[in-house]
Amino acid sequence: MCSLVQSFYDLRPLDGFGLIMADPPWAFKTRSAKGVTVKGAGGQYRLMTLDDIKAMPVSILAADDSVLWLWATNPMLREAIAVMDAWGFTFKTAGHWAKRTPKGKLAFGTGYILRCAGEPFLIGTRGAPKTSKRVRSVIEGPLREHSRKPDEAFGAAEALMPDARRIELFSRQRRPGWVTWGNETQKFGDAA
């Protein structure tokens, strides 16, 4: 953890980041072994325990007045709020990415009771950040590779805090205007 603390201090601009987006590699139970090893997150990248995610020193990166945009999964909403608290943010609201197929239809994913057609994200704050009031809570965007978030989500985040310094944790793609951190920051190449 000491090297992570130093790494975050090295990344932090003088006044901190006004917007932090994070997509932690949540470990949670799936119904089949295939879900863990082939189709699910465990087949794509190394997962982290909830305690390890909560222990990350994310507050080091945050400006006094900042927003956390935390991607979650439906079965892990309570845990996601606990992560937000551990990182020094207060839960304020939630949004949803409505996943679209290449033909524009709602996705028909897996699920435990309902079939998932989207992915939740939570918004938390630290201090009193100035945010735009023009960003909707639903983002429609294409379903792409596993865990790859839509460009529309980054556009919404940028519209929410247009002047903020931004960082994406557990990033899988570098993009202009963002600092990226993670072990797969070039998995999908550079964003346009």
UniProtKB/TrEMBL annotation:
Annotated keywords: Methyltransferase, S-adenosyl-L-methionine, Transferase
On whether S-adenosyl-L-methionine is a keyword of this UniProt record, the answer is: yes
**InterPro entries for this protein:** MT-A70-like (IPR007757), SAM-dependent_MTases_sf (IPR029063)
Q: Which GO biological-process labels does this protein carry?
A: methylation
One GO MF term attached to the UniProt entry: methyltransferase activity
Q: Which domain of life is it from?
A: Bacteria
Q: Write out the coiled-coil annotation as residue ranges.
A: none
Q: Name one Pfam family in it.
A: MT-A70
Signal peptide limits: none
Cross-referenced SUPFAM superfamilies: S-adenosyl-L-methionine-dependent methyltransferases (SSF53335)
Similarity field: Belongs to the MT-A70-like family.
Q: What is this protein called?
A: DNA methyltransferase
